[in-house]
Amino acid sequence: MKTITVANQKGGVGKTTIALHIAAAAHAAGLKTLLVDLDQQGSASFLATGDQNAHRTKENTALDLWYEDREPVFTESLFGFQLLKSSDEIDAVDDDVQEGIVALKRLGNYGFDCVILDAPPAPGVRQVVPLMMSDLQVAPFTADALGTQGLVSMIMGWQNLKKRRPSMKLRALVNLHKVVSGTQKAIIEGLRPKLGELLLPEVLTDREVVKHALRNGKSIWEYAPKDPAADVWRAACERLIQEASEADSDYAGEEVA
C-alpha cells in the first residue's frame, strides 16, 4: 500500500481539490484507491458524495479507525474510488499521537493499493500522523507571500521527519496560479532553482472549470477533456502517483518526538 498525504498549514490552497484529483487519477490507473477525509470541515466528503451533510455524524466515518471494536465503512464515491468520510467531531482524536498511529495503520488491512489522506490545515494529530506515515507528502501552495510561508513550514517539518524516515518524499505543487500576475510568475521562477525536484514542473492555474468539475463528481480531465487545464492536472496527479509508487515504505510505527 502506498500512502499520499495532501497537507499544508495554510488553508485556502486547494488541498482537497488536489486530493480528490489524485484519487481520481489513481482509480483511473486501475489502482484500488481509498481517500480518507481527516478534515472536520468535510469538504472532500461533500464533493465525493454530493451530500453536504455527509460528515455530520459519528457513524461510519474515519473516527471508526480509532475504535478497535469498529470496522471502517467505505463508500463508493462519485468518482469511483472508495471514500472514508470525515466527521464533524473528528477533532476529538487530536490528543494522542500514538493512538493516531495505531488508527491509521489499520488502513493497511483492507487491500488498497493507494491511500490518499486529506489532512486538516491545523498541525495536530490528524496532520502530523499522516505526514509521519506517508510515502509522499504533497504540499499545495499559492505563489504569494503567505503561500510560500506555509510551504516553508511544511518543508521544515518534512526535513525533521526525514531524519527518521530517509525515504519519505515531499513534492510542492503550485495551485490557484493567476496567469496574469507577474509577481506570481516571478515567485515561481525564483523558487525553482532553490527547491529543485521538490517543486513539480506543473503549475495549476486558477480556473472555474475545475470547481464545476468537482461539483459534478468528475475530475477536470473527465469533465472538460479539451480544456487546457485538463492535461496539466492529469500530468501532475500521475506524476505524484508515480513518485509514491517508487518510494520505499519504511515506516515501522515508532512514535516521532
UniProtKB/TrEMBL annotation:
Family matches, as InterPro entries: AAA_dom, DNA_Partitioning_ATPase, P-loop_NTPase
CDD domains xrefs: ParAB_family (cd02042)
Pfam families assigned: AAA_31
Coiled-coil segments: none
Residue spans crossing the bilayer: none
All residue ranges annotated as the AAA domain in the record: 1-164
Alphabetical list of PANTHER family matching this protein: COBYRINIC ACID AC-DIAMIDE SYNTHASE (PTHR13696:SF99), P-LOOP CONTAINING NUCLEOSIDE TRIPHOSPHATE HYDROLASE (PTHR13696)
Protein name: Putative ATPase involved in chromosome partitioning
Organism of provenance: mine drainage metagenome
